[in-house]
Design a protein that fits this description.
Radius of gyration: 25 Å
Number of helices: 4
Distance between the termini: 91 Å
Structural class: alpha+beta
Shape: elongated
Oligomer: single chain
Helix content: 25-40%
Keywords: Membrane, Transmembrane, Transmembrane helix
């Protein structure tokens, strides 16, 4: 009885089996593509190193599968309702920076896969941004402890991509007794949305251009 039913409906069964097979292959193809996309996606992590307070260092690690070339590192400091912005790429000492022919410490250059750059202390970065804000706002008397947050932005070029990519992470300042701590605003470093990435990168770079 069952065999007779199979013989009578063999065409329909074959069609259904073919459709199921196609869906299975599409599912596996999607998994392979997602895995490939994840492996080839650029990823930087901006974090604190050697502590969680203002004297901890800013650490930028390349967690991508290929080298990534940093073109600009930008510091953004928020105090009350004001925002201060400065290019810190070639301005602050760090143990992993390279030196160009003029002897200036710079963090512009490639980071190998799994490599990192160790910037200056967050305290020094905040002070530098306040002193060198391109808008030359009034910031006399502002101490690091009065700052609301600091955001580190990185503009980089990855692999064979011709367009720059942007990463950012904000750290809020909070009190723990007499100590001022850096509290990450997000669990990890964020990358700009792809559709708005180029617009945001241009905005970032325009903010550090000298004001005329």
């Amino acid at each position: 009885m069952f065999m007779q039913w199979l013989n009578e409906n063999s065409g329909a069964i074959s069609a259904i089996t073919g459709i199921i097979t196609v869906f299975v292959w599409l599912f596996y193809a999607q998994l392979l593509y997602a895995n490939y996309s994840r492996q080839t996606r650029p990823k930087l992590i901006v974090n604190r190193s050697a502590g969680k307070n203002l004297d901890s260092h800013c650490l930028i690690s390349n967690m991508s599968s290929e080298a990534i070339y940093m073109t600009s590192v930008i510091g953004v400091v928020g105090v009350d309702e004001k925002t201060y912005v400065s290019d810190i790429t070639d301005s602050l000492q760090g143990t992993q920076g390279s030196k160009d022919d003029s002897g200036i410490s710079t963090f512009q250059g490639p980071i190998s896969a799994g490599g990192y750059y160790l910037f200056s202390k967050f305290r020094n970065i905040i002070s530098f941004v306040l002193d060198n804000d391109v808008k030359e706002q009034d910031k006399d008397g502002i101490s690091c402890e009065e700052v609301d947050y600091i955001e580190i932005r990185v503009v980089a070029v990855y692999g064979s991509e011709n367009k720059p990519v942007g990463f950012y992470r904000q750290f809020n300042l909070g009190k723990s007794g007499a100590e001022t701590l850096l509290i990450p605003d997000t669990f990890t470093t964020l990358r700009m949305p792809r559709r708005k990435e180029q617009k945001w990168v241009k905005t970032w770079l325009s903010q550090i251009e000298p004001q005329e």
